[in-house]
Amino acid sequence: MLDQVKDSYIRVSGVDKRYGGSDASLVLQDINLDIRKGEFVSILGPSGCGKSTLLKCIAGLEDVSNGSVTTRGLMVDGPPEGLGMVFQRDMLLDWRTILENVLFTVELQGKASAEMRARASAQLARFGLGGYENRRPWELSGGMRQRASICRALLTDPDILLMDEPFGALDAMTRDDLNVEVARISHETHKTIVFITHSISEAVFLSDRVVILDRHPGRIVEILDIDLPRPRQLSARETPKFGHYSSHIRQVFTKLGIFKNA
Ligand SMILES: Nc1ncnc2c1ncn2[C@@H]1O[C@H](COP(=O)(O)OP(=O)(O)OP(=O)(O)O)[C@@H](O)[C@H]1O
Predict the structure, then answer these.
(1) Same domain, 144 and 187
(2) Has residue 16 been placed in a domain?
(3) Cis peptide before 229 (omega within 30 of 0)
(4) For labelling alongside 28, which of 48, 55, 115, 245 has CA 20 to 30 A away?
(5) 203, 248: one domain
(6) d(CA 78, CA 231)
(7) Is the shortest distance between the CB of 63 and ligand 1 below 6 Å?
(8) How many other C-beta atoms can be found within 10 angstroms of the C-beta atom of residue 243?
(9) What is the value of ipTM here, to two decimals?
(10) Last residue of a domain, one of 102, 136, 158
(11) Which of 25, 43, 53 gets mutated to test ligand 1 (max ligand atoms within 8 A of its CB)?
(12) Same domain flag for 140 and 242
C-alpha cells in the first residue's frame, strides 16, 4: 500500500473540467496522470490548453467536473497540507519588506515564530538575497522577486511544489539561472514538483517526465521520459540526447498543428 502511494503520490484520474454549467465547453478531458514521490514532472502545451487549470485542480483550488485527484492517497477537496505554490506573477505585496513577504503565508496560517523568521532569513541568504530582507519588492529585479516567492513557497518545507510558469516573464539569462536553481532544489530535496511551462527546453532541462498537452479540449497526447543524468547543468542542453528530446517534442506539436514552421 505504501509503495502504491509512493508511485502515485499525486494521482489525477479521469479528470474532466468545465468552468460553469454542464453545457459549458470542456477545458480538460480525461486527464490521467500518476506522479511518483520525488519526481519532477513538467506540463507543456500551447496557450489555453488548460495547464493552469490542471495545476489548480491538483492544488485543490478548482473542483474537477469528473474524475478525481488524490495526493498521498487522500482525496483533494481543498488545498492539501504540505504543498507550496509559485505563480508566474510573484504575488509579492509592495508594502511589506522581502522578509515580511516570505513570512506572509505562515502569518496567515498563524505559524509565524522567531524560528520561522530565522529560517526565512537563512532561506533568503541561500537564494542570494541576503542583505535584501528589509527592501521592498519594487527595489528588486524580476529574478530576485521570483527568488523571494520561491523562498516563500519553500518556507514550511512542503514536499510537493507546484510551479505555474514561474519564469515566463523573465529574461532568458535570468531564466537559465533560475532553471539551474530549481534543478538543484529538486536534486537536493527530492520534492515532488509539477512545473507548468511553454518552453520545450525548460521542460526537458528540468524534468524526469514531460506531459505534452493538446488543446480544445486540453488532453494528454504523450508523456515523455527524460533520461538525462543529474545534477544537470546548462551544458546538458548542448548534448545530442537533449537535442533529440527537444526535436521530438517539436515534431509532436507540428503534427498537432501547433507549430506551423518547425
Ligand atoms: N476561472 C475561469 N472561468 C472560466 N474559464 C476559465 C477560467 N480559468 C480558465 N478558463 C478558461 O480555460 C481555458 C484554459 O485556461 P488555462 O489558464 O488553464 O490555460 P493555460 O494552458 O494555462 O493557458 P496559458 O498558457 O495561456 O496560461 C481557457 O480557455 C480559459 O479561458
Answers:
(1) no
(2) no
(3) no
(4) 245
(5) yes
(6) 34
(7) no
(8) 13
(9) 0.98
(10) 158
(11) 53
(12) no
